[in-house]
């Protein structure tokens, strides 16, 4: 069975199928003999075709008299191209659709949607269109396709098996025909009753073009003008010299008309498999290959801002700092620095740091991955510092590092017994010349959401811990403040394993902080999280506590099921604010306070 769960190649996808078991197996088991699997599908285009698209399937079909497996998908794709890309009319292609385990036949037309989607993607890439489309890697597709682009239903008996196959795979979403959405969701919900930690979103589509308008399912990649022009010139063969001369003249004329090109990097975008570096006007300066898996991870929010800019060599342009991966794991386990358009790095630093938790031997692995980057002169000494928020892979510690941006050496490090996921924020709580650092997350030692407030000039050390999470020879950090947030009735009845501070939102105009904590687990296995939003003044006193829509809907659902007595109201939320605890460096206080070494503003 393990051989069936093959990982998807970048140029293909997996489609859920129902396997036809041998007769001797069906005879032995009267019920539930249907077995699902993921079958990898790839499309390769070999060249142009003259009169029509020619797409052959490297697999036999079980219906000898039925039309070709590719007829409907090819016609639907060509119709969509005609609507959205008129210049590709009559530019036909020939190619091949391949399935793994090609010796096995393929029945039905449920792979049609996947064939259409990936043929569309392949044609745009071959035609070197500047805007291209990609099906997200976590998406599975099942459904037939009519020549007009309508998504046709799959066999009703096979649908629950395909849902089950997707549910127990590594994929996050299953696309089904719109008319069968309720059936698929019912099958998914039945599985969630038995396996509440499972996760599968089921999405219904009615037409092929809907797939490319839904950013949960597909993404668009916009190729930079320089790369796009180079690709087009390369395709022109003997005209490339003339094209290069024309392009060079246009660059010279543009320089005379508009002045020198601004090469100071200021903006960054992740597209496709690249990091696109731009100046303040949004003009591309450089494209850096980082890998498609890393880009997907960033877009899903696993990393908040893995790029920073700062002028550290004093040449009036900023240097670029970004998270990258040493292998194909997309862990962002290395930090790189370079001058824009330079051929070599200023420096490269793998994020490998020894941490000592004597009672937790599993964290002896020194591997960390970047969660956030910030380059700024926060300690107000006249030179920028580089701040890196990094979480251990795969265990609990987190590090907030202050690095020298000229060589990547560590100047200070703050060790936390739990992942910090909020990103790096700053706010001037103390009214001094330098702002404070704010990072939030979960404390495994305390088993609660926490917020750490640190002085950039004196942040070295570790966070408060308890028995079992003792730290080796690292001393306790001198916190400006350290807050521990309680749980509501929702978390107590439907607990999430790691309640944490997900966002810290300073509001300088009001001298307040909005602290967003996850509180409770969504039972349907969706990605949305019920959240409590606490507004604190710069003196750390609670001003108000509220909840978001996900929290309210989940609480209402639990009330209807008799699990909660009532939806938490104003008095409950006021009590929540009063239960926030504050670290004094000698213990915990229920009174809003800064740590004992710091005076309140």
Give the strand tally: 33
What fraction, in percent, of the residue positions are helical? 10-25%
* Main β sheet profile: 6 strands, antiparallel
Strand order of the largest sheet: 23-24-25-27-32-33
Could you give the distance between the termini? 63 Å
What is the C-alpha radius of gyration, as a whole number of Å? 28 Å
Question: What is the general shape?
Answer: globular
What's the multimeric state? single chain
Please indicate the percent range of residues in DSSP E strands (runs of 2 or more). Answer: 25-35%
Mean pLDDT: 83
Structural class: alpha+beta
Identify low-pLDDT runs: 1-10
Number of helices: 12
Summarize the SSE layout with pairings:
Layout: E1 12-19, H1 23-28, E2 35-49, E3 54-57, H2 71-84, E4 92-99, H3 112-126, E5 131-135, E6 139-141, E7 144-145, E8 151-152, H4 159-167, E9 173-177, H5 181-194, E10 201-205, H6 208-211, E11 218-222, H7 225-235, H8 240-258, E12 267-271, E13 274-278, E14 284-289, H9 292-299, E15 307-310, E16 319-324, E17 334-339, E18 347-350, E19 368-376, E20 385-392, E21 398-403, E22 410-416, E23 425-427, E24 436-443, E25 448-454, E26 461-462, E27 481-484, H10 489-493, E28 501-507, E29 512-518, E30 531-537, E31 542-547, H11 549-560, H12 570-578, E32 581-583, E33 588-589
Parallel strand pairs: 3-4, 6-9, 9-10, 22-26
Antiparallel strand pairs: 1-2, 2-4, 5-11, 7-8, 12-13, 13-14, 15-16, 16-17, 17-18, 19-20, 20-21, 21-22, 23-24, 24-25, 25-27, 27-32, 28-29, 29-30, 30-31, 32-33
Helix pairs in contact: 2-3, 4-5
């Amino acid at each position: 069975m393990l051989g069936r769960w093959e990982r998807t190649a970048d140029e293909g996808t997996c489609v859920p199928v129902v396997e036809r078991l041998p007769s001797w197996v069906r005879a032995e088991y009267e019920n539930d003999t249907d077995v699902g699997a993921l079958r990898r599908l790839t499309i390769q285009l070999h060249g142009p075709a003259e009169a029509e698209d020619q797409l052959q399937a490297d697999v036999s079909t079980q219906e000898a008299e039925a039309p070709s497996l590719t007829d409907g998908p090819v016609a639907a794709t060509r119709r969509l191209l005609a609507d959205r890309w008129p210049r590709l009319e009559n530019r036909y292609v020939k190619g091949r659709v391949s399935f793994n385990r090609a010796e096995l036949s393929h029945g039905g037309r449920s792979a049609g949607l996947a064939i259409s989607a990936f043929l569309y993607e392949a044609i745009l890439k071959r035609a070197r269109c500047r805007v291209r489309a990609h099906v997200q890697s976590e998406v599975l597709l099942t459904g037939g396709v009519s020549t007009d682009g309508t998504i046709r239903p799959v066999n009703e008996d096979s649908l629950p098996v395909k849902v089950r196959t997707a549910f127990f795979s590594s994929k996050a979403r299953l696309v089904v025909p719109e008319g069968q959405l309720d059936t698929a969701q019912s099958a998914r919900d039945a599985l969630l009753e038995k396996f509440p930690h499972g996760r599968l979103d089921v999405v219904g589509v009615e037409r092929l073009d809907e797939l490319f308008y839904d950013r949960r399912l597909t993404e668009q990649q916009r190729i930079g003008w320089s790369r796009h022009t180079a690709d087009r010139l390369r395709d022109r063969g003997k005209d490339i010299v003339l094209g290069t001369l024309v392009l060079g003249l246009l660059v010279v004329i543009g320089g005379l008309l508009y002045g020198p090109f601004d090469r100071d990097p200021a903006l960054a975008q992740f597209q496709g498999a690249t990091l696109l570096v731009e100046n303040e006007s949004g003009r591309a300066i450089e494209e850096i290959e980082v890998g498609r898996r890393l880009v997907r991870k960033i877009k899903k929010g696993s990393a908040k801002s893995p790029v920073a800019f700062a002028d550290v060599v004093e040449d009036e342009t900023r240097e670029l700092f970004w998270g990258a991966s040493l292998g194909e794991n997309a862990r962002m386990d290395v930090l790189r620095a370079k001058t824009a358009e330079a051929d070599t790095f200023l420096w490269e630093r793998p994020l490998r740091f020894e941490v000592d938790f004597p009672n937790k031997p599993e964290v002896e692995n020194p591997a960390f991955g970047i969660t956030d980057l910030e380059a700024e002169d926060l300690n107000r000494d006249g030179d920028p510092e580089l701040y890196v928020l990094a979480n251990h892979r795969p265990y609990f510690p987190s590090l907030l590092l202050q690095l020298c941006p000229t060589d990547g050496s560590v100047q200070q490090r703050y060790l936390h017994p739990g992942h910090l996921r909020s990103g790096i924020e700053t706010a001037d709580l103390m009214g001094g010349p330098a702002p404070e650092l704010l990072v939030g997350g979960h404390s495994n030692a305390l088993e609660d959401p926490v917020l750490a407030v640190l002085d950039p000039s004196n942040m070295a050390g570790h966070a408060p811990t308890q028995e079992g999470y003792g730290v080796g020879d690292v001393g306790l950090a001198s916190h400006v403040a350290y807050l521990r947030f309680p749980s509501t009735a929702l978390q107590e009845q439907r607990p999430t394993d790691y309640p944490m501070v997900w966002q810290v939102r300073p509001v300088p105009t009001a001298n307040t902080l909005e602290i967003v904590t996850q509180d409770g687990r969504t039972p349907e296995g969706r990605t949305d999280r019920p959240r409590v939003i606490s507004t604190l003044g710069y003196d750390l006193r609670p001003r108000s506590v509220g909840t978001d829509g996900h929290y309210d809907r989940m609480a209402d659902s639990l009330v209807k099921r008799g699990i909660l007595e009532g939806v938490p109201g104003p008095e409950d939320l006021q009590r929540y604010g009063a239960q926030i605890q504050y670290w004094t460096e000698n213990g915990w206080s229920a009174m809003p306070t800064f740590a004992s070494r710091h005076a309140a503003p």
